[in-house]
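Protein modeling request. Please complete all fields; requests missing the sequence field cannot be processed.
Requester role: graduate student
Desired output: 3D structure, token encoding
Chains: 1
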Amino acid sequence: MRVRALALRLHLVIGVLTGAGLLVLGLSGAVLVLRPGFEGSQSAELAPAPSGAPAPSLDALLEAARRRHPGFVVTSLSLPGGDAAARVGMLDTTGGALEVLIDPRSGRIAGSHWAERSPLHALRLLHTELYLGARGRVIVGLLGLWLVLQGMTGLYLWWPLMKRPRRGFTVRWARPWPVMGRDLHKALGAALLVFHLPIAATGALLGITALSPGAVDEAPTVSPSSPSLRTRHVETLARAAERAMPGARITAFRFLPGPVVAVTMRAPGELDPHGASLVVVDATTGRVVTVRDSRLRPWTYRLWADAKALHVGAVGGPIVRALYVLGGLASAALALSGYILALARARAPVAA
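Delivered output (352 residues):
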């Protein structure tokens, strides 16, 4: 009995301390998981390519972006695949990041927008780092660990009800609010465990890596002050990357100082549709400098890559993303109901 009382107190304290974080992360995550749908709606507006016309080369896509925005420096090229718009990343002279959408079938510009001024970009920063940079990523990771503990204590408190399973999910709607609220919180929390525990654990893993970046060997990134490659032979570099990893599909290029090109590849068996493998190619000679095949990397890297794909709902289609949205909204409802119950519990002795 003493252990149960301790678990209840721990569950209450963790809920009070982390409830606001769960509310923010749940609501922001529910919107962010729909990001592929928002981006897909932009691709739906692309005009079909003329019948029989060859698809433009990768170099032609980059040249189209340069013509539309002269003086800007190309830093990346993303290829989602299918009929989705290709995305060319560019920087202006002040370091402002611009994203240019190009129809990969015709080479026509579909639109441009400032990447860092997007509401989705602001929401992603809130969800991943609370606008606090690396320190915020650590806080989000610690929140994930606390939420795992919260789920485990909730499961411990709820499990005795399984002696009569019906009670574990019964909500007595006709009873006074404190009783109905506890029933609702209990049933919702138990039903969401299958969603909460994996999401909290993977979120913790992604956040805690900010403590030791060396634990996950990520690809180099482009800084606003970095010079960018202006090669006209991206197709040649792409063929070199494909020869280095047969069977893998190119999903993105990053043009880095050196000059080198970091080519992101998706190998068979990878969960992340954006790819978790990397080939670095010397842009001058076309020589492959580095091959980071996720299938040959340490298990820690594979764990991180798979955790990222699972956390953002990249595994599965629209139905899975819809379930993630419902899970995020339910998480926010769980946090809110927990706060209301904690407040009612604190006021109970006074009311007596």
